[in-house]
Design brief:
Layout: E1 2-3, H1 5-9, E2 13-18, H2 22-26, H3 28-36, E3 40-45, H4 50-63, E4 65-69, H5 81-94, E5 98-102, H6 104-108, H7 115-129, E6 148-152, E7 159-162, H8 167-176, H9 178-184, H10 190-199, H11 209-230, E8 239-244, E9 249-250
Helix pairs in contact: 4-8, 5-7, 9-11
Length: 255
């Protein structure tokens, strides 16, 4: 891929292959900015219960993202032929310019069920989608090589995307994931309670797990997305971090 200014400015076809719903928000800045630029941002989520689907539909509307659910089971998912075909079909049908997915290094130590087998499944499906694989079973869907893969929330990022202009939308999208926020607002130790009271204004007045979860997650997110610029080594103030698979191929060195 040759990187020109037009490549950076124009809207693209961006596909998120996500294990869980919160990944839509984790890369929500990029998805929202792309939709605003005239691109198409689409998320295909492998695991989501009924309530989470309702929450995620509200979240996707805020970000301008189209959405589909792949109906897989986090406890039993494997890179079988049937599951590979489901993802290959999704990729070929959407025909993305960019695929976003979880970071292979990060997910290796993540104890959420399904993350490790999903990583193998996703990368295998991306590889197969661009080859003459299962053409009879996926009639009418031609091979679709993907020019670029970016890993979200990586342990070792190599690029940042400034999200100042869509920060309000990103926060509102997170607020819509009420099922997830209730988890963040659950009981905690006295030490953790005292820490939250110091860091979140008005913490003592928040009474429900949803209120507490929303306030605590907002504080965590602000710290996380401020971090790249807060070190003083980057010019972004609020930024999503990504790691591109492979090298950037450039016509010239960008500033």
């Amino acid at each position: 891929m040759t990187c020109r200014r037009d490549d950076l400015m124009d809207g693209k076809r961006i596909l998120l292959l996500g294990a869980y719903s919160m990944e839509v928000v984790e890369c929500g800045g990029v998805l929202c900015k792309n939709a605003r630029a005239g691109g198409v941002s689409h998320a295909a989520i492998l695991f989501a219960g009924e309530q989470m689907r309702r929450d995620l539909s509200r979240c996707a509307d805020i970000l301008g993202v189209s959405l589909e659910f792949l109906d897989m089971d986090a406890g039993t998912v494997l890179p079988t032929r049937e599951e590979k075909l489901r993802l290959v079909e999704t990729i070929r049908r959407f025909r993305p310019d960019i695929i976003l997915t979880q970071d292979p290094d990060h997910c290796a130590g993540d104890l959420d069920p399904g993350r490790r087998p999903v990583m193998s499944l996703v990368l295998e499906a991306v590889a197969l989608a661009g080859r003459p694989y299962a053409l009879d079973e996926l009639s009418g869907l031609e091979p679709c090589p993907c020019p670029a893969i970016y890993y979200i929330t990586p342990d070792h990022p190599n690029c940042l995307v400034d999200i100042q202009d869509v920060w309000v939308e990103k926060c509102a999208a997170m607020d819509a994931l009420e099922t997830q926020l209730i988890h963040f607002g659950g009981p905690c130790s006295p030490e953790e309670e005292a820490l939250r009271a110091r860091l979140v204004p008005g913490w003592a007045e928040l009474s429900t797990p949803l209120e507490r979860g929303r306030a605590w997650k907002r504080a965590m997110d602000l710290a996380y997305y401020l971090y790249p610029g807060a070190t003083g080594h980057h010019r972004t103030t609020l930024a999503e971090q990504y790691r591109r698979e492979g090298c950037f191929e450039l016509d010239r060195l960008p500033v």
